[in-house]
Specification:
By secondary structure, this protein is an alpha+beta fold. Helices cover 39% and strands 22% of the residues.
Length: 243
């Protein structure tokens, strides 16, 4: 009799009911992902560690849980302080994964995979370092990178098909393109703003050179300078507004 095909972690995660609630899973090499949530909630999940995992000689369990948005609150793929603490103190696992999922469809957007090394520190005795890492699920990428360096944790971001990692979370490829276009627009607005303000000072101050610019009258150069000044202010406004 043919063995049943092992489902991928993504298939199992995307098949969970009530995808707006976080969920926890356990994975062993060559084995199918198992749902191990003890209690699920929006932006929180309590994992249930199988007793067999605690007595397993080889600590090769991978603990995976989901991060998803809920009621307008956007959750990133970065771990919370409690996620890091649990991973460091969990003696049964060597790997930890966070799957960023869509709260309506349950679709996986991408994974953050963390790995312990032989030099990875335990959380005990380093509480002051963990306390500096922001509480809650949102945390700047720089703080996460610094924390991984301190505790000797390796990590990588793995986007799902059709998504790209964009700093703290995964976005559809189309959204990343839009973000890049907006970034170019913002930079262009700044360049125009600075250039216009600089030129306006030249036209508004013809006496600095002792001559009228390009044989323009003082009145004409003042009008041009005022116009450029307005353009510069508007360009600077749009830049800071988008930032």
């Amino acid at each position: 009799m043919a063995k049943a095909k092992i489902k991928s972690p993504t298939e199992i995660i995307e098949n969970i009911d009530r995808p707006w609630l976080e969920s926890s899973y356990s994975k062993y090499p060559g084995k199918e992902l198992k749902h191990t949530s003890f209690a699920r909630g929006p932006r929180i999940v309590t994992p249930n560690i199988p007793l067999a995992a605690l007595f397993r000689k080889k600590k090769d369990r991978t603990w995976i849980h989901t991060h998803t948005s809920h009621e307008g609150y956007t959750t990133t793929v970065l771990p919370s302080q409690s996620d890091i603490l649990y991973f460091l103190e969990d003696k049964s696992s060597r790997y930890s994964g966070i799957a960023q999922t869509d709260p309506e469809t349950g679709k996986v957007k991408g994974y953050l995979i963390m790995k312990k090394t032989k030099n990875t520190l335990k959380a005990r005795g380093h509480g002051d370092k963990l306390e500096k890492y922001l509480c809650g699920v949102r945390a700047p990428i720089k703080q996460f990178e610094d924390l991984c360096t301190y505790f000797n944790i390796k990590y990588r971001f793995v986007p799902a098909k059709g998504f790209k990692y964009g700093g703290e979370e995964f976005y559809p490829n189309s959204d990343v393109k839009i973000k890049k276009e907006k970034s170019l627009e913002t930079k262009l607005a700044l360049i125009i703003g600075i250039s216009a303000l600089t030129l306006s000072l030249i036209f508004l101050s013809p006496n600095l050179t002792g001559n009228a610019i390009a044989n323009l009258t003082t009145k004409t150069s003042s009008i041009i300078g005022a116009g450029l000044f307005i353009v510069g202010i508007v360009g600077s406004y749009f830049y800071f507004k988008k930032e």
